[in-house]
Amino acid sequence: MSDTYFTIGMAGHIDHGKTTLTKALSHIDTDRLKEEKERSISIELGYAPLRIEEGINISIVDVPGHERFIRQMIAGVAGIDLVVLVIAADEGVMPQTTEHLEILEFLGIEHCIVAISKVDRVDDEMLEFVTEDIKDGLAGTIFHDAPFVYVDGISGKGIDNLNQTIISELKLVESRDAYGSFRLPVDQVFTVQGQGTIVRGTIYEGIVQQGSQLRLLPKDHKVRARQIQVHHEEQDVARAGQRTAINLGGVDKEDVHRGDVLVASDHFLVTQAIDVALQFVEALRAPVKQRMPVKIHVGTSEVMGRIVFFDRNEVKQADEEVLCQIQLDEEVVVRRGDRFILRRPTPVETIGGGWVIQPEGGKYRFGQVTIDMLQNKKQSTPKDLIEDVLSKHTLLDVKQLIQHTSLDEHIVNRVVAEGIEAGYLIEVNRQKYGVTKTFNKVKDEIIFRLENYHQEHPMRLGISKAEILQMLSGMYSKVLVEYSLNQLVKKGNLEKEDQFVSLSEFHPHLPKQWKQRMLEVIYSLERDGLTVKKWEDYLTATPLSKHEADELAVYLVQTKQAFRIMDDRLIHRSALDAALSKLKSQTGETFDLKEAKDTLDVSRKYLIPFLELLDQLKITKRQDNERKWMDKK
User: How much is the pTM?
Assistant: First the structure.
């Protein structure tokens, strides 16, 4: 059985014994700062390893409980799998207990143990009263069925029971994704003399190896993992769920901040607008108004922004989930499903929390249409998300699909493979993917354009590929149009001759209204043999316009009924065939200009262009003053 890695958080009101309890469990004092020692309160996040059972690796995060240090508390619990809610037996539920409880719910922490601490300070009657008070406080929350343990961090009472309860609860927790793209939100940055810049955080997903090339977002610094430590022990690899310190090469401490995110791939996007599903606290001190400044805590970042509603202008009290957008003052790194906390900067209070529906929020209109769109996105399956993104962006590769959907790579690969097999996705040009519905739209558009083109230009072979690409360039990518053309040709819907494309059932023809007039011109051209007049001279006695005359000339050349021998003259195919037959029968393997003139009995004015046409058609090849037959049969 492989090892599993978890992070548990100690949360609760100030001075309820979180740090003492952490020390009793791990034998490590997590208060490191001088001020923490002097004031007996936790100011920064504290960490300690907990080893209870073989194969289960646990990191404890001791989060500050004082209201002034709430941001450190949010950063600390953002990556935990299980919370130990510490409540002192001699005080019971306090303001920070309630606020921490709300934050834990908003962050989606599903597993909780209630540790009633300092039990040596109270009698049984008080303990029973506090227990009932806590149960009342948890009623209606996600933690209403949380197990209770009674402990005293100083005497050690109940510690063994707490250890066993932790193991039991962690066995119910789904382990983090070690196969996803590596992501570590940074919550601490420091330097060690001779070592350089070190960052610390809990790995949300994936693994990191010593020597790995990494990226530090949102500024996108290229860095290298020179050394990895897990609880002060050097490791070659660290995995999702582990509390990890990484010595970074390639960046100065001043360029790294809490809230930055360390990643190993380009699957992550930075954003300044996120679409969210937001749940408000039960009792707001004041209404939340449209575009009001808010502070969002997501991962370990803390960023100012504005809240944008699409179906209301303020919230006084909202029991239901509100779909809205947070427009941020700074870039953050988030993925779909990430949890966040929203706080009012003044007066300072937690106003709600929720999860990210779409990391790349757009500009939307106020109204029900936007709400319906956000509701659809919220309820979307991975298949829905991929189809939606491809409908919007037409063609994307796997990396781009991961960026735009915030899905893990293995999920994207699975959905793409299933989609291609089921026929609702297509693979285009080296692992770029699109939806079959889009391909069908392009196909229909091409056929529609060709039908119109054939109707307007019945004498032409078809439309050039370059012209089709130009026609559809504002609607679809060149790659998709080329793919669609190739598929239509392959399936027999289209014919392709040289650079021209036509519907398979189409054949160039003379327009009905001008057919007789044009046939008369063609007969005249045929009668003149090699000694043809200028093309315009054949048309002077007809009502054909210059456009129609030009179209007729193109038709004759493209269908090889005639050939251009000068800029302003054509010869009929029959004239070419007759002259060619006569010349072949009366010359040897080669012939010169005089032999040709004597055989065909035409002036140099017509002979030279005719012979050049034979060269152009690769019937002959000129060698100095002679021409050689390429195939005299």
Answer: 0.71
